[in-house]
Amino acid sequence: MEQEEIQKICIKKNILLDAALLNAFSSFQNVSLLEAFLDKVKVTLGKRFITLSLIKKNSDKVGKFASEFFPKEDPEREDLYSKLDLSDESIYIKEQQKRSRENLSSSQRKVKVLYSFYQSDKKPEVKDFVNHFRGRYESMKDLLQNCPELENLVSISKISGEKQKFSVIGIVSDKQVTKNKNLIFEIEDLTGKMKVLVSSGKEDLVKDADEITLDSVLGFQGTGNKEILFANKILFPEATLPERKRSDAEEYALFLGDIHYGSKNFLEKDFLKFIDYLNGKVQGTPEVKNIKYLFIAGDLVTGIGNYPDQEPDLKIIDLEAQFRGIADLLGQIRKDITIIISPGNHDGVRLAEPQPPLDEKYAWPVYELENAILVSNPSTVNIGKSNTFDGFNVLIYHGFSFPFYANVIPSLISEKAMNQPEKIMKYLLKNRHLAPTHTSAQYLPLESDPLVIKDTPDIFLSGHTHKSGVAYFNNILIVSASSWEGLTPYQEKFGNTPDHCKVPMINLKTRQIKILDFETGEDKVKLYHDENKSKEENGNT
Question: Which H/E stretch holds residue 502?
Fold first, then answer.
């Protein structure tokens, strides 16, 4: 490709290349490929003027996506890799060196990421959804099949036409109520389908059956044949721990969510008071020196276009500027506190779960925080591990599926669970899945379903509802984070009554839990519809 043609592409893309790169890219023959590659380099490095030295300095980043553009069998690959110093060996070494630095940092801070999902560029196909549910079924079956109450456990295809006592594990594909108030479920495993009937006369069993949501994987025990099983027991996979761990070191972990920086209703003065507390500027708080971990469960910023007519609620209408602002605030926190940040539905990443970590294109100021660890939603992080203690496993899930269950499950409806999110979290732990029903959340179909709670956490953290809550379920500590945003008209419309600036703090040694309250009332939050009302009263439109 002639250099003049490359320069035309650069003008089109608003990019400047030095002479060395012009020479290197002259080996390209595919114009559209070069355009796509330059776009990726510009976004990844965040620079308009791109030099060969800049690419070599960031060869680990460029190397991550270079192989997508140039597969090993591409004849242009070797020449370009040589010119850009992107040999597979050099990329591998730099990646290993980076991992070593990350592991050392994590070891020093006693933080280890056990699970975090990273972006997949593969477009889902129909077969991916099939494999997704097959994988989910197998995972849940592994959790259920050792339950001693599931006597004579068999696959559906092996059930004969004769009446017998048996158990099956199936995914619920349909749920109906008969005229006699009996509940009939259609379930299926990898070998076939069948019906399960729960008699209305079995009151305790009906209570369990009422709680069943579609697409959940459960165990059923009873009497019947290959056509129908008359259930005597329903077995949920139910996450449980034998005991509540205690650390051998007196360290504290704090839990936040839904900061919503960038909103007109962001409670900035209260948040600054919280930062002063962390930095030891509040008298009579000797415990702060032992605070080592700060979790943020999504919605770090308020984002753009997340709900209808959001713009009037925004103080900052640029996503990148929102991330710059919150990074400036978090950057004031003392550096021996590790900040673990997971995204939410307002943070400019895709809604489909698992959500990858914050997008570096917009959230680069957060990536520059030296004491921050960015993970996906959901994710699992281990904290407080030592030579004599295994640490605490913290499951982080923002909670986008919560409204679905609060409005579908009878007990959660009666308890108005959107204002008691810990009850929703108990329900999901009982089902060992963060969004068991197909329609409860958008998701990416993966062969290994990352929303299955395969390993029982010590702590389950969520946000999204803007309600503060702390509870235990089978020795699992449940924490729901409050909000740092005043009530918006959109929340008011749905009857939400958020909690503000409440920060649960757990002593990892004693397991004592305190709810710190930083709400001062000094932030003069004025709702957009109140401003409109004032204008109308003054004759303004």
Answer: strand 502-507
Q: Are 520 and 270 in contact (CB under 8 A)?
A: yes
The predicted model gives 417-429 an average pLDDT of 94
In a domain, 242, yes or no: no
Distance separating alpha carbons of residues 184 and 198, to the nearest angstrom = 6
Q: Output the domain CATH number for residue 522.
A: 3.60.21.50
For residue 112, tell me if it sits in a domain.
no
Q: Which range of residues forms the domain containing residue 172? A: 127-235
Q: What is the secondary structure of 220-264 as a DSSP string?
A: EEEEE-SSEEEEEEEE------SS----SS--EEEEE----BTBT
Query: What is the percent of the chain with per-residue pLDDT over 90, rounded to a whole number?
Result: 57
Q: How confident is the model at residue 125 (pLDDT cuts 50, 70, 90)?
A: confident
pLDDT in tens, 264-322: 999 999 999 999 999 999 989 999 999 999 999 999 999 988 888 888 888 998 999 99
Co-location of 172 and 287 in the same domain: no
Contact between 517 and 282 under an 8 Å Cβ cutoff? The reply is: no
Which phi and psi angles does 60 have, rounded to 5°? -65, -40
Query: In the block, which residue shows the tokens 């009857």?
Result: 495
Structure tokens, 122: 């593969």
Question: What distance lies between CA 3 and its chain's CA centroid?
Answer: 45
What would the 3-class secondary structure string for 108-130 be? HHCEEEEEECCCCCCCCCHHHHH
Count of helices and strands (H, E) across the chain? 17, 19
CA dihedral for 377, 238, 479, 508, sign (positive or negative) = negative
Q: Say what the pLDDT of residue 41 is.
A: 79
pLDDT tens-place string over residues 465-496: 999 999 999 999 999 999 999 876 666 766 67
Q: 93, 109, 144 — which closes off a domain?
A: 93
Q: Are 231 and 205 in contact (CB under 8 A)?
A: yes
Quote the CA–CA distance of 345 and 362 in Å, as a whole number.
15
Q: Positive or negative CA dihedral for 56, 57, 60, 64?
A: negative
The total of structural domains in the chain comes to: 3
| pLDDT 10s digits, 142-186 | 999 888 899 899 999 999 889 999 999 999 999 999 998 999 999
* Whether residues 341 and 403 fall in one domain: yes
